[in-house]
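Duplicate of #3305? Posting structure anyway:
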């Protein structure tokens, strides 16, 4: 027996009785045993025997005495009820002990024979004016899961829900608060599929409402399409509206089909809950009233009892709000437009005596206000856009000026260094020509070298580092303004051209920076080379004790301080990019040897005298 065959037998049993389907997880059927055909009676017992997990209750009652009932997963005899029945003054044709023993003889191995014996027992009791009824309870969730599980599999989770008829389903919705219905029926992670044992509309969109006994006819592709729309809508309702506390988000497109199918007003509170929910910025609950926050400035947080308010609005009022939502729906995923819609609602409902209650009456006014607000917002945006364009022009002009100024200053420093060196050469020539005294050339030149290496080269290195910082700041400024412009419309600007111009200026500045750094390094090596030459000249051409020896000693001390003092201190130069400690050490060695060389004869004489 399949789950579909099971429900067909259950429906046959219900044809002569009453069905109570008022709960989400269970339903009950109550019928007179004698009203059922014998074959239907036996089929019911076979259905129970095949799917005992589908039952939450199973009783056979004679007037007020339970004769047989479900005990765990087994059907058992209620001996107390049987004995009470036997004690009654029944027709002699009703042999209670016979049927009691007969049940034990057939159950559980011959369930159909056991059912036939019970049916005969019930018929005898009915003839003896004793009313025998059957009460069964069904686990709807288990049955629905097996029905779909046997027929359909998807990549997403399903939430199968079984109801006897759509009317029972709508009555259940009408008897519960909207937020409870949203939480129970419309889960965020699973797609609801409503199965009905009778009178199903057999619709797929927005959520399937299908005949339970015909689940094999559910069109799989359409179900998948409906599921995609469901998850997309539920995601939007959760993303753009803050549902506070334990409130579950729900989108009007999911409820709309139920509301249109339901003839009465039972689904109206749920539909209004979803409509006002997505139209507002936040939803909260306070007891039986719901609070919808449409705007915080000016503040408009109306509280309403949806059941009472929907009764006042009626179907026409709900239709009017639904019409407003259709206009809003195209822009519901854009925060800026949502704000304008909420301001338009606030403008026409806030401050009035009836507040949000008059919303259905001002729908056209709200739409008109939204258009006005939209035009104002566009104008403001274009004004802001104009400011950004002006800022962009200023940015590019400033960018060019800053890079050009920094690069020119660096180049000028390099030129000044060159002129300084030329000045030193001219001064030496002047010394030789004016006084014909070459002795002053080494100490004077060494003094000039100390000034240039010790003070002037670090200044130029600072200029180069300033240029590097300027390039970094220009890049950051460009990124900032680019993001600022993209807020409006990236299609209005050709960022490729703007990026190309910026890169050209930055590339030019980086080339100048690299050139300046290379020239500075070359000048440093050239100065050290000259320094070494002057040291050798001073050591080998002049005797110890003359000004040349003093110049060598002072220059050695200065160069040693520059090479080994801490980089972050006022004298250390080893952290500068142009500075080479290895070259400085070689120069120090040459200076030391040149200083010691004039003392060698003195040392040799002292050794010989000793």
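Output from current build:
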């Amino acid at each position: 027996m399949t789950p579909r065959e099971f429900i067909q037998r259950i429906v046959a049993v219900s044809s002569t009785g009453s069905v109570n389907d008022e709960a989400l997880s269970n339903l009950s059927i109550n019928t007179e045993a004698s009203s059922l055909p014998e074959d239907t009676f036996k089929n019911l017992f076979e259905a129970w025997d095949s799917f005992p997990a589908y039952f939450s209750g199973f009783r056979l009652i004679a007037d007020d005495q339970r004769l047989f009932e479900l005990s765990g997963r087994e059907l058992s005899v209620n001996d107390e009820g049987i004995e009470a029945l036997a004690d009654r003054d029944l027709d002699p044709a009703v042999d209670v002990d016979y049927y009691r023993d007969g049940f034990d003889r057939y159950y559980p191995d011959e369930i159909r024979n056991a059912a036939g014996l019970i049916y005969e027992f019930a018929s005898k009791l009915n003839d003896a004016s004793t009313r025998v009824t059957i009460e069964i309870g069904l686990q709807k969730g288990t049955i629905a899961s097996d029905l779909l599980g046997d027929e359909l599999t998807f990549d997403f989770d399903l939430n199968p829900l079984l109801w006897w008829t759509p009317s029972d389903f709508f009555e259940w919705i009408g008897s519960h608060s909207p937020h409870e219905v949203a939480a129970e029926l419309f889960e965020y992670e699973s797609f609801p599929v409503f199965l009905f044992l009778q009178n199903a509309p057999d619709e797929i969109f927005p959520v399937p409402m299908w005949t339970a006994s015909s689940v094999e006819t559910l069109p799989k592709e359409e179900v998948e399409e409906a599921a995609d729309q469901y998850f997309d809508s539920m995601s939007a309702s959760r993303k753009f509206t803050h549902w506070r506390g334990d409130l579950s988000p729900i989108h009007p497109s999911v409820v709309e089909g139920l509301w249109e199918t339901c003839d009465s007003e039972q689904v109206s509170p749920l539909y209004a809950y979803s409509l006002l929910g997505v139209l507002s910025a936040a939803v909260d609950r306070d007891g039986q009233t719901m609070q919808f926050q449409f705007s915080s400035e000016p503040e408009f947080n109306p509280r309403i009892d949806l059941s009472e308010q929907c009764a006042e609005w009626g179907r026409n009022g709900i239709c009017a709000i639904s019409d407003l939502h259709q206009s809003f729906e195209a822009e519901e995923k854009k925060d800026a437009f949502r704000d304008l819609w909420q301001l338009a609602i606030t403008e026409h409902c806030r401050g009035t005596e009836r507040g949000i209650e008059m919303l259905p009456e001002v729908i056209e006014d709200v739409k008109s206000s939204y258009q006005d607000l939209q035009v104002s917002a566009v104008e403001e945006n274009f004004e802001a856009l104009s400011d950004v364009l002006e800022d962009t022009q200023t940015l590019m002009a400033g960018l060019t000026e800053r890079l050009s100024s920094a690069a020119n200053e660096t180049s000028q420093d390099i030129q000044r260094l060159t002129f300084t060196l030329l000045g030193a050469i001219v001064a030496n020539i002047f010394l030789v020509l004016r006084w014909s005294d070459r002795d002053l050339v080494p100490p004077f030149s060494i003094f000039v070298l100390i000034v240039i290496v010790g003070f002037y080269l670090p200044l130029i290195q600072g200029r180069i580092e300033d240029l590097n910082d300027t390039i970094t700041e220009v890049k950051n400024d460009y990124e900032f303004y680019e993001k600022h412009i993209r807020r409006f419309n990236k299609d209005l600007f050709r960022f490729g051209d703007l990026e190309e111009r910026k890169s050209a200026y930055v590339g030019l500045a980086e080339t100048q920076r690299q050139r300046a750094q290379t020239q500075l390094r070359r000048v440093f090596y050239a100065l050290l080379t000259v320094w070494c030459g002057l040291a050798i000249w001073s050591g080998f051409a002049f005797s110890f004790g003359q000004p040349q020896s003093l110049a060598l000693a002072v220059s050695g001390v200065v160069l040693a301080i520059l090479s080994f003092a801490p980089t972050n201190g006022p004298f250390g130069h080893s952290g500068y990019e142009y500075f080479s400690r290895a070259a400085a050490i070689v120069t120090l060695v040459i200076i030391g040897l040149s200083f010691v060389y004039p003392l060698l004869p003195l040392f040799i004489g002292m050794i010989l005298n000793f």
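Confirmed duplicate; merging threads. Residues 57 and 221 are 38 Å apart (CA to CA). The longest helix spans residues 363-435.
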